[in-house]
Structure formats: structure tokens, C-alpha cells
TrEMBL record:
Lineage summary: Bacteria, Bacillati, Actinomycetota, Actinomycetes, Micrococcales
Domain of life: Bacteria
Protein name: GrpB family protein
InterPro entries attached to this UniProt entry: GrpB/CoaE (IPR007344), NT_sf (IPR043519)
Family annotation (PANTHER family): GRPB DOMAIN PROTEIN (AFU_ORTHOLOGUE AFUA_1G01530), GRPB FAMILY PROTEIN
Length: 243
């Protein structure tokens, strides 16, 4: 993975050479300039990802079963993300190297659980002193560590707030690049978007039915996995042919 941060003077070069472009927080050295995070993915790392079935350290206990509800797409989800991104940015300042809306609620027209998935890129997720206390002070709840899966940490929104997952990865994480590709593909490929919507609705119904109206999101995600794995294979083959 090749990483760079730049401003408007050079962003055209990075776009033209195939980098993924994300908004980044301002740099104190050039506070008036809009900044970007640029990532050139290394395809073997995307094609052969680490699995997320390793040890999980739950904080405040493991999740309890609950109804798995998939809602029609909402026009409010982009605004919900923008409000979350502003809170996170205010809490962390330049330590938040990128704050991105990924996951199903980031795809226009896609049904989803009404939970905003935010991906926060930091210098090193293992350096929790850089962000944990600040996010807790901003009202977020620390839920889990998955050090063996790209150093992943997860925070969630507090009670009574718009439901949200804040996934924390290192800058340039292959998993973040995979999520960007998935979002962008579904945004521009209607047939796959509609197929994924059917899978999501069927998986939620199956999990709820087998659990008497309740289920675990982990089981819902596992039921969708064959479709997601096959779609990633096609996305990455297409990416290779266009490179």
C-alpha cells in the first residue's frame, strides 16, 4: 500500500494514477488548505485479506440478541454521517487522518440496518492513548478490540443517539480500501446492488425466524458472507483489468 497526504495542488496527479482519494483533516502547518488522504492499494493484500474470526476482546460485555431490522434507504443517512464526522473531528483534530462513510448506509438506494458505519483512520490503533479517552469524552462507547484483524477497534454511539459503529483502522489499512471498493461498486452497479438488497432482507428474516424474532448481527453478517466474498472476487478482477 502506498500512502500520501496532499492538497489541491497535487490531487489531480494522485487521481490520475489510480489512488483512492478521501478527505483528510487539516494539517496545522497549512490550516487553510483542504487536505486529502491518497491510498494506492496493493491488490494481493486486498485479494487475500486477514479473517476477522480471531480473538475478540469485548468491552462492557458481549452483545445480546436483538431483532435484526433492515430498513428502506433513508435520505437522512448522509446527514447523520456528517454529524458524526464533525463530532469525531472535533474530538480528535489532526489525529483523525480520515473519517469516511462506508458500509451499507453509504450506498444510495440500498436497504440497510439503520446503523451508520464510520471508518476512522488513525496513525496506529494500538496507541489507544491517542484517541480512546477523547472519543469517550465525545459520548462514544468503546465496544471491542480485534488486534489480530488489522488492529481493529470499535466504538458505538451512546444510548438515545443515532445508532453508529465507528471502526478504527490504521491509515492505509487494506480493509478500509476493500470497503471503499465495495461501496463504490454497489453505488454504480444497480444489478449487484439489487441482488445484495435481496440477500440482506433474506438473511435478516432467516436470523430473526431462527431466533424467535431475535438474533445476532454477527450471524446476519455470516449468512451474507458467500455473496460478499463472490462479489469481492469480481470487483478485484475488474480492478486488475483496469489497472
Amino acid at each position: 500500500m502506498v500512502l500520501a497526504r496532499t492538497d489541491d495542488d497535487a490531487i489531480g496527479f494522485y487521481r490520475a494514477t489510480g489512488f483512492q482519494i478521501s478527505d483528510s483533516t487539516s494539517d496545522p502547518r497549512w490550516s487553510a488548505r483542504r487536505r486529502y488522504l491518497c491510498v494506492l492499494p496493493h491488490l494481493p493484500l486486498l485479494r487475500h485479506p486477514l479473517t476477522d474470526d480471531g480473538p475478540v476482546e469485548w468491552i462492557h460485555g458481549e452483545p445480546a440478541p436483538a431483532p435484526v431490522l433492515v430498513h428502506p434507504p433513508s435520505a437522512s443517512w448522509p446527514q447523520d454521517f456528517a454529524a458524526l464526522a464533525e463530532r469525531i473531528g472535533q474530538a480528535l483534530g489532526p489525529r483523525a487522518l480520515a473519517i469516511e462513510h462506508l458500509g451499507s448506509t453509504s450506498v444510495p438506494g440500498l436497504p440497510a440496518k439503520p446503523v451508520i458505519d464510520v471508518v476512522l483512520s488513525v496513525a496506529d490503533p494500538e496507541s489507544e492513548a491517542d484517541y480512546v479517552d477523547a472519543l469517550i469524552a465525545a459520548g462514544f462507547i468503546f465496544r471491542l478490540r480485534e488486534s489480530g484483524w488489522y488492529g481493529h477497534r470499535l466504538f458505538v454511539a451512546g444510548p438515545g443517539e443515532q445508532a453508529a459503529n465507528i471502526h478504527i483502522f490504521a491509515i492505509g489499512s487494506p480493509e478500509t480500501s476493500r470497503m471503499r471498493l465495495f461501496r463504490d461498486w454497489l453505488t454504480t452497479h444497480e444489478t449487484d446492488r439489487e441482488a445484495y438488497a435481496r440477500i440482506k432482507l433474506a438473511s435478516a428474516a432467516l436470523i430473526n425466524e431462527s431466533g424467535g424474532g431475535m438474533g445476532l448481527v454477527m450471524d446476519y453478517n455470516r449468512d451474507k458472507e458467500p455473496f460478499i466474498r463472490e462479489l469481492y472476487q469480481r470487483i478485484l478482477r475488474n480492478d486488475s483489468s483496469e489497472a
